[in-house]
Amino acid sequence: MIPICVFAKPPVPGRVKTRLSAALGDEWAAELAAAMLHDVWSVVTSAPRAIPVLAAAESGGFGIDVPDNRVWLQCGADLGSRIESILQRGLEIAPAAIALGADTPLLTHHELADAMEQLESGNAVLGTSDDGGFYLLGLRSCPAGLLASIPWSCQHTCDATEACLSSYEMKVARIRSSFDIDTPADLHRLRRDLDKLPPEVAPRTRKLLDALE
Question: pLDDT under 70 in the chain at which residues?
Answer without folding.
Answer: none
